[in-house]
Each structure stands twice: as structure tokens, then as C-alpha cells.
Amino acid sequence: MSSPLSGQFVIPTNREIGASSHSEPDNACTYLCGNSLGPMSKRSKALVEEELKVWATCAVTGHFTSHPHGRGWADFCDHITPPLAELKEVACMGTLTANLHLMMDSFYKPTPQRYKILCEAHAFPSDQATLAHGFDPANAVLEMSPRSGEYTLREEDILTMIEREGSSIALVIFAGVQYYTGQWFPMQSITRAAQAQGCICGWDLAHAVGNVPLSLHDWGIDFAVWCTYKYMNAGPGSIAGLFVHEKWKETELPKFAGWWGHDPATRFAMPPKFSPIEGAQGFQQSNPGILVAASLLGSLQVFKEVGMMQPLRERSLQLTGALESLLKKSQYFVPVEEASTRQSTKPAFTIITPDDPSGRGAQLSLLFLPSGVMNKVHDALNKRGVIGDERRPDVIRLAPAPLFNTLKDCEQGAMILESVFDEFI
Ligand SMILES: Cc1ncc(COP(=O)(O)O)c(C=O)c1O
Ligand SMILES: Nc1ccccc1C(=O)C[C@H](N)C(=O)O
């Protein structure tokens, strides 16, 4: 299974990425880390270079019609939002954490009866900090942990929790795909259950956008935020995104407003009164960073070429399924049911990401046993050109991203992991 698009990306060589033990230093490394930072697409590079040139040659006039590529900076993001979703529901803006703060401010309206926030335990630390939002998190934040001996949450347990606690919950907010376990939560059923109890339902889609198909509008999600440097491949710290369902259009949501959220027809007339754009774009604050937006636009063009998410998801299912079955053939693999009670000190690993493909995206989270093994494996993998990432305490994440990874990457990853266990551990 070769990737029709892998040639569109620049993958670092073994030498460049510091894989000092690789016998072929000038070959591309086995990059299974697009879940953390997607590689650079050639389109992104070309578009960023074009914008640098426009800056050099047009300066301020590049904002408007004199932009030689017809992408005046004043409405640059209009070229980005249509492929992402309905124009009015999506804004290309800011950063993930800042956008989550904005959404918390607009949607989290605690009352003495209804003030709790339901989320998964061990959410990404930035999200945990955001959810504290002025409240004592020990009282307000309800964190759901997996059952004893399990690593991921069961849908039935989440739905039962929502039903039981719903009347005191103001906001249900989960990660679409969980960063540590790789679990893709059943977004539609959680949203429906939360709203049936009168809760707002929002999502952090950092690990979900560009990874799994999303129907935010049809699922009735209230709001969502995401970054674009993971599966969207828009570059480190690139411009982020925000979704607000159109059902909120009649409601005047409080905003930390900025001039870029003002109606573009009168924005440059500098009126004293703020007149927000209807929908998500009314949350925009500042004029967007064009270099990062250009990089995102380049990456989106690659997604468009492949037909966006459905064909990619099919390829993703094949690749992740292939990596899973190769890993499960390892003599060091132990089934996940045995991992939490295992007594042996012999190094081993299991996969804590759900087996069911509908409960995961591209990422597999490998849990290493006993504690302490993971670090050594991670270092040895890196030296041999297999790039995944470690997440403490004991996980290495490997993600075959369907835009640029191939079956060969999965085979290399599994084979080198086996040799690392054989030789080093
Ligand atoms: C789930 C999740 N939330 C929040 C963040 C923080 O994102 P940012 O630094 O772009 O605000 C990340 C990634 O860094 C993440 O994976
Ligand atoms: N932006 C980064 C910069 C440096 C190192 C990691 C990140 C990540 O994004 C981590 C990611 N959110 C994660 O799921 O672990």
C-alpha cells in the first residue's frame, strides 16, 4: 500500500532526525508521529514562499486586490474555511488553548444547581487548566476514569454518568480523540445524551481533525476547537480553528471581541460600535497570521486532492489495522486484559487503544511493562529511525497517517520495535 501522496511531503532523513544507528542515513526516516506534528507538505512550503514574496513586493497593498495570487490578506481565511465546514460555523483563528478559553467564556454559564464540567480523566494538561476557568476544579470538574484494570472509557459508562449527573452538569467536554490512549469517543451519542440533559456539549478536536471523519453540524455539537499542526500538517503552532453550531446564531453570546470579528463590510470604516459577523467568525479577534494560514491552505489543498476525509479514513483503517496486526504478532506483545495484573518483570508491551476501529483514529498507544522500559525503547527506536513519541508514564504513540505513511512504514515500525526488544531490553 504505497501512498499516492507521500511524494507531496518532505520527510526528514535518518541523518537529519538524528537516527545515528541507521544503516541508510540518507533515506527518509519512518515518521509515525504525524499525530504530534505533521510533516511539511511541499504545497505549504510553496505557498508560504509565495506569501513572503507578496510581502516583499506588495507590502501593505497585499491585503487587498493587488495581491498577485488573488488571496488578499484581508479575506485570506475565506480560502481556508470552505473546505473545513460551512462557512458560518467555522473560524480559522488563534490557537487551540486560547480558542478553548473563548468558548468556555461564552458557553460555560454555571449556576448554583448546574455548574459541573464533565470530561475524561487525564485530559491534556492545557485543557485541564482551561476547564478550571475560575472555579475550584476539585468541586466543579467531574473527571471520568476507565474501570479498574481498563485503559479506555466505555460508552455505556459515559452515558450512564451523563444521565445520573446531568442535572448538575453545565458542560460536557471531551477530546474527540484522546491524546494518550488514542480512543475516539462516540461523539454523536455523547452529544445527544448531554443535550438531552440540558448540558452544553463541546469538543477538543486536536487529535481528531484530519484524522477521523467529523460531522459537527449534523451531530449537533455546540462548539469545538482544534489545532492544525497534527494531522492537518500546517506546521508548528500554526493557526487553529473553532466551530460554533448555527443553532446559536440567534443567541447573543458574550465575546472577548476584536475588530476581525466585525462585519467585513464596515470593518475598515473603523466604526465605534462592534457589529459581529454572524456565527463562528464573530469570535475572530485579530487579523490572522498569513504565513501560518498559507501553510494550512497548502496542506488543505493536499487533503482536497485526495477527496478529503472519506477516502483517507479508508486508507487509515487499512494502515492502522496493518500496524496493529504486525505488532500483535510480536513475541513481546501481551493482551491488554493481562497488562494491569501482570507480575512478570520480563519486558513486554500491550496496546491500550481500542481494538474496535470505530473507536480509534490512526494512533496506536503502546503501553510498556514494567515501568521504566518505555524510555529505553523510545530512545532505541529513535536511533533506528522510527519516530513515535513518548508520553509519560509508559506510553509510546505510533500513528500511521494516511496522507503520507505507507504499509512499509508500518512494517518497519513493527520490525524495528522487535529488534529493539531483542537487542537492548
Ligand atoms: C488535546 C490537546 N489539547 C490542547 C493542546 C494544546 O494546544 P496549543 O498549545 O496549540 O494551545 C494540545 C496539544 O498541544 C492537545 O493535544
Ligand atoms: N505542540 C507541541 C510542541 C512540542 C511538543 C509537543 C507538542 C504537542 O502538540 C503535544 C501534543 N498536543 C500531544 O498530544 O502530546
Automatic annotation (TrEMBL):
What SUPFAM superfamilies would the database entry show? Answer: PLP-dependent transferases
**Cross-referenced NCBIfam families, in alphabetical order?**
kynureninase
Q: What is its main location?
A: cytoplasm
GO process annotations (BP)? 'de novo' NAD+ biosynthetic process from L-tryptophan; anthranilate metabolic process; L-kynurenine catabolic process; L-tryptophan catabolic process to kynurenine; quinolinate biosynthetic process
Subunit comment for this entry? Homodimer.
Catalysed reaction, written as an equation: 3-hydroxy-L-kynurenine + H2O = 3-hydroxyanthranilate + L-alanine + H(+); L-kynurenine + H2O = anthranilate + L-alanine + H(+)
Work out whether the entry's keyword set contains Hydrolase: yes
Task: Provide the Gene Ontology terms for cellular component.
Answer: cytoplasm
Q: In which pathway does it act?
A: Cofactor biosynthesis; NAD(+) biosynthesis; quinolinate from L-kynurenine: step 2/3; Amino-acid degradation; L-kynurenine degradation; L-alanine and anthranilate from L-kynurenine: step 1/1
* Residues recorded with modification N6-(pyridoxal phosphate)lysine: 230
Q: Which cofactor does it need?
A: pyridoxal 5'-phosphate
Q: What is this protein called?
A: Kynureninase
Q: Give the location in the cell.
A: Cytoplasm
Family per record: Belongs to the kynureninase family.
Q: What class of enzyme is it?
A: hydrolase
Assigned EC number: 3.7.1.3
Q: Does the keyword Hydrolase apply?
A: yes
**Domain of life of the native organism:** Eukaryota
Q: What does this protein do?
A: Catalyzes the cleavage of L-kynurenine (L-Kyn) and L-3-hydroxykynurenine (L-3OHKyn) into anthranilic acid (AA) and 3-hydroxyanthranilic acid (3-OHAA), respectively.
Gene Ontology molecular function terms on file: kynureninase activity; pyridoxal phosphate binding
Q: Which UniProt keywords apply?
A: Cytoplasm, Hydrolase, Pyridine nucleotide biosynthesis, Pyridoxal phosphate
Where along the chain is pyridoxal 5'-phosphate bound? 96-97, 124-127, 204, 207, 229, 259, 287
All copies of domain Aminotransferase class V, residue ranges: 156-249
